[in-house]
């Protein structure tokens, strides 16, 4: 086969490797293989331009030089030259301490490549979907041509992407990963990638620091445990939801919002009175903590507002199909459990934990979801309410619309774990 990759319709370098016994890890690699097999090189280049391309780096170097990248060329007997290897997401090995993998795109390589870099870029070397792409001036112009139409490289957001090889699709690990599917489907990641690299080592580290303040293994361990204990969900949210749940059981039916609001206010007042009563201890009689009348009324008003806010969200949820008619959310701990599943993978990608530790946390998250909820639908509604109470402020804007879109993808896609994994 020619070693010249022309513009549209030119021959792509690299021999066709028979795919007997080989299964593409995901739709990305399958698309590359099929395009190569039929000689559709423009389609192959389009797929490469759309993909995240991962490249190994020394962890020590990456940590010391976060704004820099080193190329590590290898000798390729096909081209009889040095080449640079990159990998699509489905072809990555499980994360280890070193090396790490950072993510780039074809447009980045086109801009970064210099005249003394290797003459070829090799995608997924040694695999049936391998592509050897010329890196001279004409080759890089071709990279830029195909990259120009790509606005966001990587897997599409709000689409269920599944690893067909290398990711669990049944069992407790898969169930725990499905609990984190809200975040991973929204962000355009494989829902069932336990050996997770995410957006690449450096980007995952930056994201953990920016959104969570997590920079060390100890930070990750603490955050992971708090999420698994549902310790980050507001206790006030849980108080009013559990109160309504008890009232619904007591009255064997729906609870009127005004009744719920008044009951919550009364409980807050009673708790304040009880807390202020004298306490008998080993040190004698001590006065319990007290709040001023203004502070107490502020707490009562806040609880009453929260009840109304939750009720309005649930009304919208029913209209949008998140809850059935007459349905309500019993607990928003789902928000922490879903994030706990994702946190396990984030910690692994940032090398703050081992694969075994991440898998254990994912399984725990899945068990908590299964014990505390009755279905993926009830889990999802609870997760979304927690997210909205924290972020949305009753605007029903991006924070709500984006998570609703993700929910609908997970509920309707026949390949979604929420359709394929048994709840029982």
What would your notes on this structure say?
The protein is α+β, with helices and mostly antiparallel strands and 424 residues long. It folds into 3 domains: 27-147, no CATH class; 171-233 and 333-420, no CATH class; 235-319, no CATH class. It is built from 17 helices and 8 strands. The strands form 3 sheets. It has a 4-stranded mixed sheet with strand order 2-3-5-6, covered by helices on one side. The protein has a two-stranded antiparallel ribbon with strand order 1-4. A two-stranded antiparallel sheet has the order 7-8.
| SSE string | HHEHEEEHEEHHHHHHHEEHHHHHH
Q: Sheet with the most strands?
A: 4 strands, mixed
Helical stretch tally:
17
The radius of gyration is: 26 Å
- Tell me the distance between the termini: 54 Å
Strands in their spatial order, largest beta sheet: 2-3-5-6
What is the number of beta strands?
8
What is the structural class? alpha+beta
Describe the global form. Answer: elongated
Number of domain units = 3
Mean pLDDT: 92
Strand residue content = 5-15%
User: Into which percent range does the helicity of residues fall?
Assistant: 40-55%
Q: pLDDT under 50 segments (min length 5)?
A: 1-12
